[in-house]
Design a protein that fits this description.
Keywords: Cell membrane, Membrane, Transferase, Transmembrane, Transmembrane helix. It contains 14 helices and 2 strands, in the order ααββαααααααααααα. It has one domain.
């Protein structure tokens, strides 16, 4: 028992059987199992009411595909956070308010994303809601302080205030849309969302002032893994804008979460490195569209995304997803190293991520074999 506790301490776990660590595990498992078990029932209902994406020249599905997976992810995430709150209430009042603010903003974007999935909304209306969700964070103390960003000059408060607000809105809206734009191949966003959430979870767990962030990331990570079981190619359900907005917004917002004395601006390096894949993808797409004379680069979908380019080379949605998972994991481990996380923690996190992804992919492929076999032997 003593050797096990010593090993746990090397991985950043102060008390292997303590209330904090156990609550994180329960939060993760609650989100994972609820999302895993809930999606088949939600899928049946979505098929009945017509919540589905129709085939077109940009989509890979050949028949209507239920697009309500984001609701299941959000439900699993929210229920797990409630469970965690019951097990270990957050005692710092300001952080409590900030967590509620993140949940409120995420709820708003999930609702708007779901409406857009089913009925369609204009790019301007979606953007306005995203800015409103970012404003919710700002008025509750979650923002980037330009003067707290390392290696940049200190500027007067009269300039720092508006600039910090602008950077925060850009950070939230940019990452929300970056993750959404990646959602074009089965399993990509679900897997990348799981990788990023788990990496940020392992990183936040190394600091005593980020307990609230750990709880939210544990729930998001578990929900992503539960969803991925049904989304790895061939997908039985997709998350739609609702799920992609949830991942992008929550990951961006949690990177700003801390205590009263925590400097949010100095914490952005790790999320930026960890989220390098969606950030670079969106950047190259926007630049390419602007170069082609497209005035509204986010309102003209095409097949110039990284996942489309990889898919064209591999001709396999499964291989494309696995390759991008690997890229996200490499970025994540690099981000952990930049943060100064110890190598045993980095290696253990990487191995855990690989094991979990292999498990859900294997389970999905086995389920697919069982689905195909009766059709081949009627």
């Amino acid at each position: 028992m003593e050797s096990l506790s010593t090993l746990a301490a090397q991985l950043g776990i102060a008390n292997l059987f303590g209330r904090g660590f156990v609550s994180v595990i329960i939060t993760f498992l609650t989100a994972w199992l609820f999302t895993w078990l809930f999606i088949p029932r939600l899928r049946e209902f979505a098929v009945q009411v017509g919540w589905a994406d129709q085939p077109n020249e940009r989509r890979l599905n050949k028949e209507p595909l239920p697009n309500a997976g984001g609701l299941a992810i959000f439900a699993g995430f929210l229920i797990s956070v409630v469970v965690a709150w019951t097990l270990r209430p957050i005692v710092v009042e300001i952080v409590n308010i900030q967590v509620l603010t993140i949940l409120l903003g995420a709820s708003l974007l999930v609702l708007v994303g779901f409406i857009d999935d089913q009925f369609g909304l204009s790019p301007l209306s979606r953007l306005l809601v995203q800015v409103l969700a970012a404003a919710l964070l700002i008025v509750n103390g979650l923002k980037i302080d330009f003067n707290a960003i390392p290696f940049l000059p200190i500027i007067p408060d009269i300039i720092n205030g508006p600039l910090s607000i602008f950077l925060t809105v850009l950070w939230i809206v940019g990452l929300t849309n970056a993750v959404n734009l990646m959602d074009g191949v089965d399993g990509v966003v679900g897997g990348v969302g799981f990788v990023v959430s788990t990496v940020l979870l392992a990183t936040a767990a190394q600091f005593t002032d980020r307990a609230a962030a750990v709880v939210l990331l544990a729930g998001l990570s578990g929900a992503a893994l539960g969803y991925l079981r049904h989304n790895f190619n061939p997908s039985r359900i997709i998350m739609g804008d609702a799920g992609a907005y949830l991942f992008g917004y929550t990951l961006a917002a949690v990177s700003l979460l801390g205590t009263l004395k925590f400097s949010a601006g100095a914490s952005l390096l790790v999320p930026l490195v960890v989220l390098a894949l969606p950030v670079l993808d969106t950047t190259q797409v926007v630049i390419g569209r602007l170069a082609r004379g497209i005035r509204n680069p986010l309102g003209h979908p095409d097949k110039t995304h990284i996942h489309h380019r990889v898919l064209a080379r591999t001709s396999s949605a499964r291989r494309t997803a696995v390759i991008l998972w690997g890229v996200a994991l490499i970025c994540g481990m690099a981000g952990m190293a930049f943060q100064g996380v110890r190598w045993p923690v980095i290696v253990a996190t990487g191995l855990l991520i690989v094991l979990c992804l292999w498990f859900v992919a294997y389970r999905r492929m086995r389920a697919q074999d069982r689905e195909v076999r009766p059709q081949e032997n009627p």
